[in-house]
Design brief:
The protein is an alpha/beta fold and 351 residues long. It has 2 domains: 7-16 and 255-342, Immunoglobulin-like (Sandwich); 23-249, TIM Barrel (Alpha-Beta Barrel), CATH 3.20.20.370. Helix content is 24%, strand content 26%. The protein is built from 7 helices and 20 strands. Strands 2, 5, 6, 7, 8 and 11 form a 6-stranded parallel beta sheet that branches. Strands 13-14-1-18-17 form a 5-stranded mixed beta sheet, with no helix packed on it. α1 packs parallel to α3 (93-106). It starts with 6 loop residues before the first strand and ends in a 9-residue tail after the last strand. It is found in: Secreted.
Length: 351
């Protein structure tokens, strides 16, 4: 495999499964925050638009509980075609006021990732009575940490191991509160702001957690269960026409992703990214990669696709998306997304 500075390389290998199995080994997870007309637009979807999304799902997809989808994929069992999961982050009260009635009307299961210490203690958050009412009417609840903070932030004199131990303890404390109040522990964790690094991934996995991020893509049995992608579905991503394409996407089968750590440092991103793609259901010349919505130049060398990356120079959250049309599933695209997280020069993380 060729390693080139500023280059993303994809090696295409022979399929391990029949191409006809990919659509059944696949699900899409949607991510919402606010369902409201009066909250920040970047993380909000209006009740009318949310209803439009739910109507499209009932007409074209099968909405399943998160737990059922995760366990089915882990057991390498088939899912219904075009399976979808609905999730929310942060436990805002407007989910109860505006989203829950619509979800109840459609009889859709869904999962909310909450910060248990904030429940009932912050005015804009759910309270435990609301949580229990929703839990009795189709919702499940999972862990979003003790506080909604940037988990990659370390104290001035904090070692990597001390930071990891503190972070895991905060997550474990939140999980205990969830179990005490709801009677179950899913051990599902959603990274606040979608931010993580390889150390946090590995430690959470060793503790038995399935973890969820905020970069794009479908999921499958071959996905990385320490950072499962979800499609943001609010703000600029709430347009139903663009959402249709994502809802019909397939998880691109990849392994040997390098570098494995999405955390990067200023002043720029000077590494290459490489991963192996394992399916005959796409043609390498049709792989296209995008950064900040801009198509990136690529070249082919046998089974290797190399794509030049624009240097990342600004702190914040970034992602690179690669897609390719399926040969067997007409009109559907394989999707792979690689996130990158960059702090400021002072080591701070941006909201």
């Amino acid at each position: 495999m060729r390693k080139t500075r500023g280059i993303i390389a994809l090696t295409i290998t022979s399929a391990l499964l029949s191409i006809n199995t990919w659509a059944k080994d696949n699900a899409v997870i949607l991510l919402y925050h606010h369902v409201s007309d009066s909250t920040p637009k970047v993380t909000s979807v209006s009740p009318d638009t949310f209803r439009e999304h739910m109507q499209y799902l009932t007409d074209h997809h099968q909405v399943l509980p998160l737990k059922e989808v995760i366990e089915t994929l882990q057991n390498k069992q088939p899912l219904p075609d075009k399976a979808v999961v609905i999730t929310f982050d942060d436990g805002y009260e407007n989910i109860y006021d505006n989203a829950h009635p619509i979800l109840k009307e459609f009889s859709f299961p869904y999962t909310i990732f909450i910060n248990p210490p904030l429940i009932g203690n912050v005015s804009y958050q759910l309270d435990w009575q609301q949580v229990k009412t929703m839990a009795n009417e189709g919702a499940s609840f999972a862990n979003h940490g003790s506080q909604h903070t940037h988990m990659l932030t370390k104290g001035d004199s904090e070692s990597d191991e001390s930071w990891l131990q503190r972070s895991i303890q905060e997550i474990e404390n939140a999980e205990t509160i969830l179990k005490d109040n709801l009677g179950y522990s899913l051990k599902y964790f959603a990274y606040p702001y979608g931010e993580f690094d390889s150390k946090l991934q590995a430690r959470l996995s060793s503790k038995g957690y399935i973890s969820f991020a905020q970069h794009s893509g479908a999921i499958a049995s071959h996905s990385d269960f320490s950072a499962l992608p979800r499609y943001p579905s609010a703000g600029i991503y709430s347009n139903i026409k663009s959402l249709m394409v994502k809802l019909n996407s397939l998880a691109m089968p990849v392994d040997n992703v390098y570098p494995s750590d999405p955390k990067i440092e200023l002043p720029s991103y000077n590494q290459h990214l490489s991963f192996n793609v394992k399916t005959e259901d796409l043609r390498p010349p049709q792989i296209n990669c995008f950064q900040n919505g801009q198509a990136l130049n690529k070249s082919l060398d046998g089974n290797t696709v190399s794509v030049a990356i624009t240097p990342i120079t600004k702190p914040g959250r970034h992602r690179l998306n690669c897609t390719a049309p399926s040969i067997s599933e007409k009109g559907r695209f394989y999707w792979f997304s690689q996130p990158f997280f960059m702090p400021t020069a002072e080591g701070k993380w941006l909201d």
